[in-house]
Design a protein that fits this description.
Strands 6-5-4-3-2-1-14 form a seven-stranded mixed beta sheet. Strands 7-8-9-10-11-12-13 form a seven-stranded mixed beta sheet. It contains seven helices and 14 strands. Helix 1 links the parallel strand 3 and strand 4. The chain is an alpha/beta fold.
Length: 244
C-alpha cells in the first residue's frame, strides 16, 4: 500500500497548496481520500485524473469537498473525449442529503452511500469506519490490504473509540489542528499531544500529523506529539510516498 499526501492543511489551503487529502494506491488501484480546495490541481502531480478509480469523502465541510465540482467537470470532459471510464464512484455518508446528492453529476460521477457499520471492499482495500467527534457528521477510515493497515482519523476531537479503531495501525494519519492553548476552546479537533496519545494507546507503528493550521509555530505541535509518543512521528509531507 502506497500513501501520498496531496494536501495537509485544515480549513483552507496554504498558498499554492491544497487542503488535507491523500492518494492511496495498491496494485494499480487509486483511491483519493477527500477532495477539498486545491486537491484536483495538486493530485495531478502524482496521477492522471482519469486513472483515479474511486473517491471517498470523510464529511461535507468545504475543505474536504470543495473540488468535487471541478473533478466532475474533468470527468465530463474526459467522457466527451472518450478518455474516461465513467461514472467515477464517490463514496460518502448520506447523513447530509444535499451534500450526498451533489456527488452524482450527469452520469459522470456517482455518489455511493456508506454507513458507519459498513465494511467496504474498495479495489484491493477493505475499508471500515468510525464516527468522529466533529460539528459535521464525519467518518474516520481504516484501510487494510490484508498485510498492512493505515488509519485516517479525519476531523475529530479526542474520542475514546478511536483508540480501538486505530489499534496496531502501521500508519496512523491523525489530525492535529490545534495548539494546546486552544483545547476546550475550538471544538471538533485534536492537538499534537492528543495525536501522540492516540498513537501510543493504539500501539501505532508510525504517526503522521495532518490537517495542520496555517498560523503559529508548527514545531510546537510536533513537540507535543513527541512528548506523548516515542515512535516515528512527523508532519505529513506533500508528495512523499509512505510505503506500507
Amino acid at each position: 500500500m502506497n500513501i501520498t499526501p496531496i494536501g495537509i492543511w485544515g480549513g483552507y489551503p496554504n498558498k499554492n497548496e491544497a487542503t488535507c487529502a491523500y492518494l492511496i494506491e495498491q496494485d494499480d488501484f487509486r483511491c483519493l481520500l477527500d477532495c477539498g480546495s486545491g486537491v484536483v490541481a495538486a493530485v495531478q502531480n502524482y496521477t492522471e485524473l482519469k486513472d483515479i478509480d474511486a473517491v471517498i469523502i470523510s464529511h461535507y465541510h468545504p475543505d474536504h469537498v470543495a473540488d468535487i465540482g471541478v473533478l466532475q467537470h474533468a470527468a465530463m470532459v474526459g467522457m466527451q473525449l472518450k478518455e474516461w471510464e465513467v461514472p467515477l464512484p464517490i463514496y460518502a455518508h448520506d447523513k447530509d442529503a444535499q451534500g450526498f446528492a451533489a456527488l452524482s453529476y450527469k452520469g459522470v460521477t456517482e455518489g455511493r452511500a456508506i454507513q458507519v457499520d459498513d465494511t467496504l471492499q474498495l479495489g484491493p482495500f477493505e475499508v471500515t469506519f468510525c464516527e468522529t467527534d466533529h460539528p459535521a457528521y464525519c467518518l474516520a477510515m481504516r484501510f487494510t490490504d490484508g498485510k498492512s493497515t493505515a488509519v485516517f482519523t479525519a476531523d475529530t476531537a479526542w474520542k475514546e473509540e478511536l483508540v480501538a479503531f486505530s489499534e496496531g495501525a502501521d500508519l496512523l494519519v491523525s489530525e492535529s489542528n490545534l495548539y494546546e492553548k486552544y483545547l476546550g476552546i475550538i471544538q471538533g479537533h485534536m492537538s499534537g499531544s492528543q495525536a501522540g496519545q492516540l498513537a501510543t494507546q493504539a500501539s501505532a507503528k508510525q504517526l503522521v500529523l495532518t490537517h495542520l493550521p496555517q498560523y503559529g509555530e508548527l514545531s510546537e505541535i510536533l513537540a507535543q506529539a513527541q512528548k506523548n509518543y516515542s515512535g516515528d512521528v512527523a508532519f505529513a509531507e506533500i508528495g512523499k510516498v509512505y510505503k506500507l
